[in-house]
Amino acid sequence: MDERKNEARDGALLLDDADAKRAPTGQDGQSGDGKAEESAGILEEILDRMDLDVDVDVREDGEKIVLDLDGPDVGRVIGKKGMTLDALQFLLNKIVNRFPDGRRHVVVDSGDYRERHDNGLISMARREAKRVVTEGEVVTLEPMSARDRRVIHLSLAKFEGVTTASHGQGMQRRIQIMPADGEQPRSRGRGRRR
Amino acid sequence: MTSHEDSASDDSGSEDSVTDLMIYLARQLVDEPDAVEVEAIEGDRAIVYELTVAPDDLGKVIGRDGRTARALRALLTAASSKVRKRSLLEILE
Questions:
Q1: What are the E-state strand segments in chain A?
Q2: Which residue in B21, B65, B68 is closest to A50 by CB distance?
Q3: Scanning every residue of chain A, which has its alpha carbon at the shortest distance from the alpha carbon of B17?
Q4: Cα(A57)–Cα(A148) distance, rounded to whole angstroms?
Q5: Pairing verdict, β A55-61 and A64-70
Q6: CB distance A51–B63 less than 8 Å?
Q7: Which of A10, A16, A51, A173 to probe by mutation at the B interface, max B CB count within 10 Å?
Q8: Among residues A72, A191, B50, B60, which is most buried (max CB within 10 A)?
Q9: What contacts A120, CB < 8 A, 6 or more positions away?
């Protein structure tokens, strides 16, 4: 159960890349500190060098900066399983938050991509949870990022009859959905794509 | 994003512009941007981009569990669509 506690703590972080652990000191920044414009400028420089024809739209929501991409190359900018979008977001957070003070959370999105991605995760998790309940067996999901695991833990927190936990290290960390009570569950380790 | 209209941007996605992308990203991440160097070495099947940074900046381009290096590689791959060879990023110590 220890692992589950850790996960919940991860989940409390607002950063998609769960990188806030790195800078426990320092105040969060706010709108008007110029970081939204700075991050949009850097993202444009990157996209230009990647030969991606997309426009950057900037929104601010408290300490959060949302950079919304749209244009002919959105497909390429999202990448396979959102890999390119995630890499852009990760690096921008690193660059913009190089100094501990005035940290901002930068989200790189394209339209409702992240929302649709999360909805996909949630419906997959519910489907698997139902299977756990009806078959009484543990289901192990594919390895996922801390952020995606958080979405699933939260979505199943109130799901009757199952509990969730994460196992494994780093890139290999994956969620297990288990029957909430009853006899010792038999693990079958069936993977599911996210 | 205006440069897409320029004819000068015809080399985007090429070896040179990928080198430029890696230099730009590394310089944004490190404390000593002047020490950043990227050399593209073209082989038969792959192009290896060798990244050199100041010794104290190594951790900044590698990151915890290699996450920064992984993100750099993801962008390198995405940017190399016009290069018909595999693109690899090597961080030199």
A1: 55-61, 64-70, 105-109, 139-143, 162-167, 174-179
A2: B21
A3: A49
A4: 24
A5: antiparallel
A6: no
A7: A51
A8: B60
A9: A194
CATH code that applies to domain A2-111: 3.30.300.20
Closest CA to A181 of A166, A193, A163, A158: A163
Name the band, by pLDDT with cuts 50, 70 and 90, for residue A102: confident
Q: Hey, what are A29's tokens?
A: 């920044």
Characterize the bridge pairing of strands A105-109 and A64-70: parallel
Go through chain B and tell me how many residues it has. Answer: 93
Q: What percent of chain A has pLDDT over 70?
A: 80
Do the domains spanning A2-111 and A114-179 agree at the CATH topology level? no
- Nearest chain A residue to B25 by CA distance is A46
| Non-local CB neighbours of A194 within 8 Å, separated by 6+ positions | A81, A120, A121, A124, A141, A142, A144, A148
For chain A, what are the domain ranges? 2-111, 114-179
pTM of the model: 0.78
Distance from CA of B44 to the nearest CA of A (A): 23
